[in-house]
């Protein structure tokens, strides 16, 4: 088994750190939106 | 079920099997068969990862969960994005660099053969039985509500999955997952549209959301730290991260999905996009359940959603008592409807005092309805002492077959069967890979040709498929086994995660210490299971922490590991 590609170039946002931050911020945003959703309709 | 629904359902099943086998007809070597030649793009893997996790029970049970308990179950998934980030940073580059077929192969490269075998055996034991349950659970619900023969349902689902998974391997699993996710998404969207259309004309989506919210069904986030509450933000973020790390990082049925990526980038993207979309998807499924709840505020629901148990009690000596309860239940629902309209009026007028008063009245009526339901369930139990008194899994499908139009019932059933088939195919594929790569090729026949291992892989897929069907049929005769399978997962998951955590993060700890720690941890978990009343979810945590702690403790005093180190 050889010749496989372990390239780790980032397709968007230029660095992996930024992409991880995006996923994390998306989680924070979802929690905030869920909180608002719960408060508005409770 | 109408002939049109049968045509929709049968067409879909035939399409999936034909598409899966045709699209993967070039699978002629082991690498292609088990890893899709490491050529899958990230979007294929994302859909495959999501389809693997979403079993049929997800679509049958989750809306019912929102109906009964509200939407707080979504917090169970809050740890998933964090786990996706951690695995993208650690596991993905390691697995790609070492070019492994299975997660357990890495354990030999990091530690030694015995750790690899231990990880493989724990996985095969747990996932082999779980594969049977993946087929059995939806078959039971479909057979109860539609009157299908359960063994025939199990057999049909199992055989169809075996055909395309055996012929096409990972390529077939990935390709069919894409089609299955399309059908699942379309089926759920159509179900949501229909629920909205079935609501009274004067009830808007906002009105429906207000009704659900005021009746405690839109309780998505709970910030209170309370160990006795199963779902809050803290259990989701802490416990959920551990659970998702274990599932996505050490369970071959998931690892195999992202190992088929052409590069670290593609595998990472697959996991990270899953981290972005999984929670909104679960939110939508739960919201559908909350809307079914609102629908049943305007249409009197059955007292109990499992129609077989209802029929039993209605033909027993308790029939007249049950009928009287049904009349009371209907009267309460009529009263509830006018109360709900008063509540909506108060919301429109933004009259907070009136809203609170209406809420109190509505909760009072709901408590009366709950009491009647409790009495109804007691009668069901008296009529049949072995009756399953939890009907959560039957709520959504009962709604589908009672109220959705012809054609759409077939589509939603196709979506549910898709979910069952997608999870089962990934499980069979992973079980075959682990059996062949980690056990057969490593221990019994090291020098076979590629053609030989390809044939053995296909035979292993058939074996595990037959095993899953056999277990599913056996489970039908011994209902208590179902709970045993859920407990079985928790008995092993913690130990496996502990081994991988040591492997990834504690580089100075060696193989023998980790192996002894894993054995000791597993013994402790088993002792807790047999001799304590501890809730089984805690076994994951105990197993994991014990492996890490004992491995760190044993490493300095273990002679063979010290020799390896020097």
List the helices and strands and how they pair.
The complex is a heterodimer of chains A (42) and B (566).
Chain A: H1 16-41
Chain B: H1 3-23, H2 30-35, H3 42-53, H4 56-69, H5 80-89, H6 91-98, H7 103-110, H8 113-146, H9 150-198, H10 205-214, H11 233-250, H12 252-259, H13 264-298, H14 307-314, H15 319-348, H16 352-383, H17 395-403, H18 408-444, H19 450-477, H20 481-505, H21 511-531, H22 538-554, H23 559-565
Describe the structure.
Helix content of chain A is 62%, strand content 0%. By secondary structure, chain A is mainly alpha-helical. Chain A starts with 15 loop residues before the first helix and ends with a helix. The model of chain A has no long low-confidence stretch (mean pLDDT 84). Chain B is globular, with a radius of gyration of 25 Å. In chain B, 53% of the residues are buried. Chain B is an all-alpha fold. In chain B, 79% of the residues lie in helices and 0% in strands. The A-B interface holds A 1-2, 4-11, 16, 19-20, 22-24, 26-27, 30-31, 34-35, 37-38, 40-42 and B 31, 38, 74, 78, 81-82, 84-85, 88-89, 93, 96-97, 99, 209-210, 212-214, 216, 218-221, 223, 233, 262-265, 268-269, 272, 275-276, 279-280, 283.
Features:
heterodimer, A: 42 residues, mainly alpha, B: 566 residues, 23 helices, 0% strand
How would you briefly describe this protein structure?
The complex is a heterodimer of chains A (42) and B (566). Chain A contains 1 helix and no strands.
Assembly form of the protein: heterodimer
Measured between the Cα atoms of the first and last residue of chain A, the distance is: 57 Å
Helical fraction of chain A equals 55-70%
Per DSSP, what share of the residues of chain A sits in E-state strands of 2 or more residues?
Answer: under 5%
The average pLDDT of chain B is: 86
**Structure summary, number of beta strands of chain B:** 0
Order of helices and strands of chain A: H
Query: Structural class, from helix and strand content of chain B?
Result: mainly alpha
How many H/I helical runs of chain A? 1
């Amino acid at each position: 088994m050889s010749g496989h590609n372990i390239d780790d170039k980032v397709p968007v946002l230029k660095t992996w750190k930024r992409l991880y931050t995006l996923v994390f911020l998306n989680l924070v945003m979802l929690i905030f939106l869920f909180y608002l959703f719960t408060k508005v309709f409770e | 079920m109408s002939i049109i629904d049968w045509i929709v359902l049968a067409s879909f099943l035939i399409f999936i099997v034909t598409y899966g086998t045709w699209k993967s007809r070039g699978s002629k070597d082991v690498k292609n068969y088990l890893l899709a030649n490491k050529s899958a793009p990230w979007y294929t893997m994302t859909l495959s990862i999501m389809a693997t996790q979403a079993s049929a029970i997800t679509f049958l049970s989750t809306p019912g969960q929102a109906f009964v308990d509200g939407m707080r179950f979504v917090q169970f998934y809050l740890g998933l994005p964090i786990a996706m980030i951690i695995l993208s940073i650690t596991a993905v580059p390691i697995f790609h660099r070492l070019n492994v077929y299975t997660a357990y192969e890495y354990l030999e490269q990091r530690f030694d053969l015995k750790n690899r075998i231990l990880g493989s055996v724990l996985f095969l034991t747990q996932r082999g039985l779980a594969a049977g349950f993946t087929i059995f659970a939806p078959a039971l619900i479909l057979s109860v509500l539609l009157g299908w023969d359960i063994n025939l349902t199990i057999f049909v689902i199992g055989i169809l999955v075996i055909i395309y998974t055996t012929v096409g391997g990972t390529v077939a699993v990935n390709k069919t997952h894409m089609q299955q996710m399309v059908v699942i998404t379309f089926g759920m969207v159509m179900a949501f549209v229909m629920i909205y259309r079935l609501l009274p004309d004067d009830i808007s989506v906002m009105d429906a959301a207000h009704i659900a919210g005021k009746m405690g069904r839109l309780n998505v986030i709970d910030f209170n730290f309370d160990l006795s509450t199963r779902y809050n933000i803290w259990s989701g973020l802490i416990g959920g991260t551990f659970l998702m790390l274990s599932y996505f990082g050490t369970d071959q049925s998931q690892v195999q999905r992202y190992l088929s990526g052409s590069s670290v980038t593609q595998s990472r993207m697959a996991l990270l996009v899953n981290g972005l979309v999984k929670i909104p998807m679960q939110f939508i499924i739960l919201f559908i359940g909350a809307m079914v709840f609102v629908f049943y505020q305007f249409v009197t629901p059955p007292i109990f959603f499992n129609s077989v148990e209802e029929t039993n009690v209605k033909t027993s000596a308790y029939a007249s008592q049950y009928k009287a309860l049904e009349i009371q239940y209907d009267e309460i629902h009529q009263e509830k409807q006018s109360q709900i309209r008063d509540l909506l009026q108060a919301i429109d007028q933004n009259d907070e005092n009136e809203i609170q008063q209406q809420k109190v009245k509505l909760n009072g009526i709901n408590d009366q309805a709950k009491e009647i339901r409790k009495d109804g369930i007691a009668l069901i139990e008296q009529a049949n002492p072995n009756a399953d008194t939890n009907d959560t899994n039957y709520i959504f499908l009962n709604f589908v077959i009672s109220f959705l139009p012809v054609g759409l019932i077939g589509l939603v059933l196709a979506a549910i069967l898709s979910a069952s088939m997608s999870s089962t195919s990934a499980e069979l594929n992973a079980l075959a890979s682990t059996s062949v790569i980690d056990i057969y090729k490593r221990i019994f026949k090291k020098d076979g040709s590629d053609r030989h291992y390809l044939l053995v892989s296909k035979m292993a897929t058939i074996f595990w498929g037959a095993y899953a069907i056999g277990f599913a049929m056996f489970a039908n005769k011994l209902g208590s086994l179902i709970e045993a399978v859920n407990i079985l997962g928790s008995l092993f998951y913690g130990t496996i995660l502990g081994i991988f955590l040591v492997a990834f993060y504690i580089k100075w700890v060696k193989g023998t210490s980790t192996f002894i720690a894993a054995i000791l941890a597993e013994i402790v978990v088993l002792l807790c299971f047999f001799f304590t009343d501890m809730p089984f979810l805690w076994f994951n945590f105990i197993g994991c922490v014990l492996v890490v702690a004992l491995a760190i403790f044993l490493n300095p005093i273990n002679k063979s590991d010290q020799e390896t180190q020097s």
